[in-house]
Specification:
heterodimer, A: about 575 residues, alpha+beta, seven-stranded mixed sheet, four-stranded antiparallel sheet, globular, B: about 110 residues, two-stranded antiparallel ribbon, 3 helices
């Protein structure tokens, strides 16, 4: 095969939140080295923050919170199953990252005296920092990428991590515009491919109506798995409270500090904290499906100028089409409550606790392979966690390659991958990718959506195994179709991981995220562990337990339980508001 | 049985109008598995609407902006259009278009 690989020192796969900072920081650390940033879309408008972000959800800023407080809060929100050292590494570098972003031109909300205008949304501490002008985040990052001379390759989708004797050696992939097969050799690979956001099917039935940017199909989860990396706590799904049908955040983090809050159909508040955790989602789900459902976000009691301020943020950043969605239905925050629903399931450490297992140096269990952002296992990272871990991954990768020679590429593996990924183009009459994707994701909803039970999960698993027969018949008319066909394989891999991990943990934990009807109790005696999933020696998925790393910030038992006390006792008098 | 058979084998029973042509359901299942895939076209109402009088020939800013790569230049007209039903209604194309030629509707299933 006369394929000439592109050569890199550090290769960053995915130019979203974590990937942009990883590429910038790797290039700064290796001014004479080659840093390549691969992006499936175009870096200027890609990833979870393609249209900016309305705020930082987890800033640990002096005078407002300490790193230790933050570690405690995230430990509680995850029922104790965390690598505290990895969370602490983020918390300690969070302030420096905010300062660096400011030096790049990112604007955070300040008080009249010039302090960061930090708000309380979490159950215990104050970490939310609004960014009313957060719409041009990707523009700022793209400018920094150009300034540092990172080599950017847009519209390239990585499909497999290449290995040299168990060490990361580069990637194989395709150009989604030309269908060209691409090989990049690198001394270190940083995966920052975002969440597995196209796992469940939104209730609207619209394939691309997902909470996550639908380009984030779970490519990173699948690539890390096939490279032999360990993934942790995959059964801890991402499920979010979203605007019904629109399927974007409303968002309690923006409106909460202004006085907006979640109510049931009677207009009563029922949760102490709107911060997204599994326990909060369980209360939300109970109310939504109970006699007092549906659930709403209430802002119509606020002063008109406050509502205007909220609208200015929500209708310009993150998901700016929220405004025309509401207006199209003749509704507004000032006059109506916003009907909410639960999202489809996904895998995303940014909001929950599932991902490719990394330590406080962003190293995966495969040498030379790093992971950061929504796909890496540091929980509740959100945007600032992704930025910070992008930087941590880059600095450690730059250090690692100093002792590494150029890896050898395995021609047989490359040839096999080329055959695999290009196969659908030879079958223009094959199964259409969007149709098979719908079927896969409909089965995810049918069998994996919590509350879970072994019988249902096994039915799902049965289909995801059978689906390989259908995946082998996928066809593609053009490179765009080919991208969607390969994503079907990714979605099926993620669905199988989600089913197997959910079957493995025979207890309930993380509220709604892993609610097992057949094992309704949390069982710390047997399950105060990480569940680890990886590719076994026979090529099948294997699961096992790993002990939770020793705590660096101890918690007493009462503290660990505090996220289980989010329910407010019902009020005797219904509020007098109109829907 | 060879997978290259376009027409699946059917048992020797006479085919009678109004009756199934297979001897039993196992034979039917095998035959339907081996039958080749065929496709039908379907028309969608798509969210991204391009005003061709404003869209600049030669510009492809929106095509580059789209995070799901659902836009393309129509080679016959030289204008942008929504080629694939993949829109995330994120507004990147609408915001980035230099001539305000694009209007993004909320997709029908959602609005």
């Amino acid at each position: 095969m006369n394929l000439i690989p592109i050569e890199a020192d550090v290769l960053v796969v995915g130019g979203g939140t974590a990937g942009c900072v990883a590429a910038i920081k790797a290039k700064e650390a290796l001014p004479n080295g080659v840093v390549i940033l691969l992006e499936k879309a175009n870096v200027k408008r890609s990833g979870a923050i393609a249209l900016g972000m309305d705020g930082v959800n987890n800033a640990v800023l002096p005078g407002h919170a300490t790193p230790e407080q933050y570690v405690k809060e995230i430990t509680m929100a995850n029922d104790g199953i965390v690598n505290q050292e990895a969370i602490l590494a983020y918390a300690q570098q969070s302030h420096a990252m905010v300062q660096e972003l400011e030096s790049w031109g990112v604007k955070f909300q300040k008080t009249p005296s010039g302090d960061y205008d930090v708000k309380k949304v979490h159950h215990k501490g104050s970490y939310v920092l609004p960014m009313p002008e957060g719409y041009d985040m990707k523009k700022i990052l793209t400018r920094e990428i150009r300034r540092t001379c990172v080599k950017t390759e847009n519209r390239i989708m990585a499909t497999r991590v290449l290995l040299d004797n168990g060490r990361a050696a580069g990637i194989a992939g395709i150009n989604v515009r030309t269908g060209e097969f691409v090989v990049i050799r690198a001394k270190a690979v940083i995966l920052s491919c975002g969440a597995a956001g196209r796992l469940g099917l939104p209730a609207s039935g619209y394939l691309m109506g997902t909470y996550e940017n639908p380009a984030n199909a779970g490519d990173g989860f699948a690539m890390a798995y096939h490279a032999g990396a360990e993934l942790s706590n995959i059964e801890c799904f991402q499920i979010n409270p979203l605007i019904k049908d629109y399927n974007g955040p409303a968002c309690a983090y923006v409106s909460g500090p202004y006085g907006g809050y979640t109510v049931n159909a009677l207009g009563n508040r029922f949760m102490l904290s709107d911060y997204w955790s599994g326990q909060m989602m369980l209360e939300f789900y109970k109310e939504l499906t109970g006699p007092n459902g549906p659930v709403y976000l209430k802002m119509n009691h606020l002063a008109p100028e406050t509502v205007t301020e909220i609208e200015q943020i929500l209708h310009t950043t993150e998901r700016p089409s929220r405004g025309r969605f509401h207006a199209g239905r003749g509704r507004s925050y000032g006059s109506d409550w916003v009907e909410m629903a639960v999202s489809e399931i996904g895998l995303c450490s940014g909001h929950s606790n599932s991902g490719v297992r990394v330590n406080a140096r962003a190293e995966t269990s495969v040498p030379g392979l790093y992971a950061a952002g929504d796909m890496a296992s540091v929980p509740h990272g959100y945007m600032l966690g992704a930025f910070t871990y992008g930087k941590i991954a880059a600095l450690n990768a730059a250090e690692y390659i100093r002792q590494q020679s150029t890896p050898e590429l395995d021609d047989a593996a490359i040839s096999a991958e080329r055959t695999r990924v290009l196969a659908p183009l030879a079958r223009p009459d094959g199964l259409p990718p969007h149709q098979l994707e719908y079927k896969l994701r409909r089965h995810v909803n049918d069998y994996l959506q919590p509350p879970k039970s072994a019988h249902r999960l096994e039915r799902g698993l049965n289909y995801f195994q059978y689906a390989h027969e259908e995946l082998a018949q996928l066809g593609a008319h053009d490179p765009h179709d080919l991208m969607r066909a390969i994503e079907c394989h990714v979605i099926c891999d993620c669905a199988e991981m989600a089913a197997r991990a959910s079957l493995f943990r025979t207890e309930s934990r993380w509220g709604l995220y892993h609610l097992r009807l057949d094992y309704p109790e949390q069982n710390d005696a047997e399950w105060f562990v990480h569940s680890i999933l990886r590719k076994g020696p026979d090529g099948d998925m294997e699961l096992f337990k790993r002990p939770v790393e020793p705590y660096v910030v101890p918690l007493d038992n009462d503290e660990l339980q505090s996220y289980h006390q989010l329910r407010i006792a019902p009020s005797p008098q219904p509020a007098t508001a109109t829907v | 049985m060879s997978s290259s058979n376009v027409s699946p084998p059917v048992s020797g029973k006479a085919i009678v109008a109004g009756r199934l042509k297979f001897a039993d359901e196992t034979e039917a299942a095998t035959a339907t598995k081996m039958a080749p895939n065929r496709q039908a076209a379907r028309v969608f109402d798509v969210p991204v609407v391009v005003d061709e009088t404003r869209c600049i020939t030669g510009c492809h800013v929106c095509v580059e902006s789209c995070p799901v790569d659902c836009l393309a230049i129509d080679p016959a007209k030289g204008k942008s259009h929504m080629k694939y039903d993949d829109c995330w209604y994120c507004l990147a194309c609408e915001v980035d278009c230099p001539t305000n030629a694009i209007t993004v509707k909320i997709p029908l299933l959602i609005r």
